[in-house]
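Page 37, continued from 36.
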């Protein structure tokens, strides 16, 4: 009897030790893009997306079911990118029932709702850090064991995209998948930057306008980040870099006319469910009507800010999907911009094929062209 009891205790002890070791093996710490160390006992299972458009990169990791961890999100996919919303909704109708949150930056985030959903983590874009601190959101969520992790695909996209994907890979237990995507992204960027470095072509002056028709005032643009950096990597000179101290801001019509850019690029999206449903924005995106897009693009050129501008006179006028500015797919935009700026150097580069491969390898929905359009198409 004593011997049997000894073995029973030994087995129970070993089982407990094995369970503890397994739990310890799952535990990990990430350093988010705000420099905060955040520790977890295991990969997360319940996630609140601080922006709905974070589903772009969640889909890269949880491709079989992007919504399996999502217990709450903001409503910005429907309002900022209706084409993508419809593509996902047709395949995942359950997403229409996910609880919707307000925005930290305007004070409409519902902390009580977040608490009730018992998330393991709240993913926030880096620009939400100050509002989160001011609202004492960290204290509230920490008190119930909910962690906050900051990621960034927008403010300093080319510094933080790879790191953000690695952080998400760790959180989801999908490190290898994140590394595979990052390797693909890097290789596709190099298909442009290696050529630019080797050939050193002249840099055309580019004015890249941010969401014209969605914003009333002319003209919003990017500085030396985000789309401004994409222009640079594609072998162009971004007008906004010369006049803006930050990532984005406004330039006047007089500044545009004086600079006389060689190339004009508008960002656009399907904003028909936004506060500006009738704007003259160019509705590029999944399966977009590009003939209608060209009509709106031509209308943008009729504004006084583009009177006599070289880009207008030569027809070097284009529009590209606005949402490239807030997801890790910037390399597709870099390739397309490079073709516009240096058509001879990149005659064999096919951004449509690149984006189609991205969908086939990393996304749960089929690729539908329509993400860019040119007046001279």
């Amino acid at each position: 009897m004593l011997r049997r009891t000894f073995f029973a205790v030994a087995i129970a002890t070993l089982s407990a030790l094995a369970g503890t070791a397994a739990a310890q093996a799952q535990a990990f710490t990430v350093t988010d893009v705000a420099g905060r160390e955040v520790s977890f006992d295991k990969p997360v299972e319940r996630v609140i997306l601080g922006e709905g458009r974070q589903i772009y990169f969640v889909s890269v990791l949880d491709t079989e079911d992007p919504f399996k961890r999502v217990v709450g999100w903001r409503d910005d996919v429907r309002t900022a990118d209706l084409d993508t919303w419809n593509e996902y909704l047709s395949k995942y109708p359950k997403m229409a029932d996910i609880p919707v949150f307000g925005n930290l930056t305007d004070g409409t985030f519902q902390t009580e709702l977040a608490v009730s959903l018992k998330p393991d983590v709240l993913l926030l874009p880096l620009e939400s850090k100050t509002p989160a601190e001011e609202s004492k959101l960290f204290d509230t969520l920490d008190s119930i064991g909910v962690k906050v992790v900051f990621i960034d695909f927008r403010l300093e996209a080319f510094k933080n995209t790879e790191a953000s994907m690695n952080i998400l890979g760790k959180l989801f237990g999908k490190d290898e998948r994140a590394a595979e995507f990052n390797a693909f992204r890097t290789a596709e960027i190099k298909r442009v930057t290696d050529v630019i470095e080797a050939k050193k072509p002249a840099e055309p002056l580019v004015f890249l306008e941010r969401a014209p028709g969605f914003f009333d005032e002319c003209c919003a643009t990017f500085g030396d980040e985000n789309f401004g950096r994409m222009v640079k990597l594609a072998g162009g000179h971004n007008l906004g870099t010369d006049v803006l101290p930050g990532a984005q801001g406004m330039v006047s019509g007089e500044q545009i006319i004086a600079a006389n850019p060689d190339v004009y690029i508008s960002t656009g999206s399907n904003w028909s469910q936004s506060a500006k449903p009738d704007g003259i924005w160019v509705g590029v995106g999944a399966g977009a009507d590009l003939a209608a897009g060209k009509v709106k693009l031509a209308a943008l050129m009729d504004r006084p800010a583009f009177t006599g501008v070289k880009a207008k006179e030569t027809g070097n006028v284009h529009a590209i999907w606005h949402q490239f500015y807030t997801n890790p797919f910037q390399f597709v935009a870099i390739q397309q911009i490079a073709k516009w700026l240096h058509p001879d150097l990149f005659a064999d580069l096919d951004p449509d094929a690149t984006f189609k491969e991205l969908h086939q390898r990393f996304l749960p929905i089929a690729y539908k062209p329509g993400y860019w359009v040119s007046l001279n198409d």
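Residues 191-374 form a domain with the Rossmann fold fold (CATH 3.40.50.1980). Flag for discussion at group meeting. The chain has two domains: 26-174, 191-374.
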